[in-house]
């Protein structure tokens, strides 16, 4: 499949041009965050006269960026952690114990993955509203656990089927309990799946808008997508700070991507092909 | 003895499965069943009063012209998005598996839009469609861009398709790449020796051998684009005049603006059934095309 050299060179140049066009929307917006709104409206394509960060400062203040960043980080990190912690244990149980309840539960989880969020949204708001559990970060974490469990259990289940029993058996003979065996022997073997799940769940929870918008009502609890929404609907004519706000929301995931890109790409592939 | 074993097993079950299974029940299973129950009632938001109605809500959903128009609009949107995104992703993946320096960097770059949530992407593109493109259109006299695409029903449809496809391409490309890399090189070379040209190779060998990736990609793109909400909210807010409300956006609007949870929930259930039927049917038929290398 290897093409001859000059042709391959031409092809790669062409592909770089396509990539540049593909990413042009981002580049244009970044460039315009350094201009005033008036300069942007007059000529969105011009090079900025100087690179000042006034728009970023304004966006940080007006959309309460730090609160959003803090909330988003707390919610994303803790949800991802509890999803992985509890799902790995459940996945292990489903693989190692052939109880009837296990196969029924596993099937229920598998089937639930086809359910769109929209089909659960009204009952969730009704039930949790009735129980007085809306407008709390704890409820949001609990919901991310519930929604995240099926896919995570399924992924762990698939991986653990390939883990040999012998290691665990020798630990049992040495008198190790089930729980201790799991954490000392099985968990270290699960690293690759965990990275995959960390990546996929982080992208999902960090970017989620609809669920937090239904659960979190007070401004002090807002995650970044909620701050973006509030900012945009309030200041929809002051374009430059708006663009700066959008770019700042992107930066944390972009950094994560640059650090973890190989694992992210592998994670997507494995997540999809499972 | 058996009692002790039962106790032990229950203990193991509660420790290993307890928290996650409890959350799954409390967040997914019970709300789903309760939601189904809601569709047979006339639940009122404010009072919580309700009586059993039978299938009346579903009848109302299927008689609702707006819902059906929007479902049709959504089907068109899904069709174009799925075709454009998959064709582009396949060819990109094809170009990025031929082995040259920098292909890793290119893959990374094309994936970037997937890191960003629909809401932020929607706002980003909203600024492009409402500010940048009209500027270009006026400056160079391109009639196509002179007014914002988002204020014209037809063009707003294409704006939605373009942005959705643009975002999906990188994700699908990654899956196609792994599909293409599993096609054995010697099979393709053998075909070349037997006189197959480039087009034949793609049609007769590469496509059938990458069928599993194609099935997954089409499945993912169908279910993702059917459930587009954030992008729709940020890009057009359903406008102009509700003409670009996709079904899943409409379902959310309806659910929390109208007073009847029963009808809203029935619409959500109908949407779920439509997505499931379409996505599973295509997977069933495409799976039949799969071959072993």
What are its keywords?
heterodimer, A: 274 residues, mainly alpha, B: 293 residues, 12 helices, 0% strand
A few lines on this structure:
The complex is a heterodimer of chains A (274) and B (293). Chain A is an all-alpha fold.
Shape field of chain A: globular
Radius of gyration of chain B: 24 Å
How much of the residues of chain A is beta strand, in percent?
A: under 5%
Low-confidence stretches of chain B: none
- Helix count from the secondary structure assignment of chain A: 13
Uncertain parts of chain A: none
Q: Give me the Rg of chain A, rounded.
A: 24 Å
Q: Report the span from N to C terminus of chain B.
A: 54 Å
DSSP summary: helix tally of chain B: 12
Helix/strand class of chain A? mainly alpha
Distance N to C terminus of chain A: 27 Å
Bin the helical content of chain B. over 70%
The largest pleated sheet of chain B is described as:
none
Structural class of chain B: mainly alpha
- The count of DSSP E runs of length 2 or more, i.e. the number of strands of chain B, is 0
- Biggest protein-protein interface? A-B, 89 and 90 residues
Oligomer: heterodimer
Order of helices and strands of chain B: HHHHHHHHHHHH
- Specify the helix fraction band of chain A: over 70%
Protein model, in words:
The complex is a heterodimer of chains A (274) and B (293). Chain A is mainly alpha-helical. Chain A has helices spanning 5-32, 37-42, 54-62, 65-96, 100-112, 118-130, 137-160, 166-173, 178-189, 191-207, 210-215, 224-234, 239-273. Helices cover 78% and strands 0% of the residues of chain A. In chain A, helix 3 (54-62) packs across helix 13 and helix 4 packs parallel to helix 7 (137-160). Chain A is globular. Chain B has twelve helices and no strands. At the A-B interface, helix 1, helix 4, helix 5, helix 6 and helix 7 of A face helix 1, helix 4, helix 5, helix 6 and helix 9 of B.
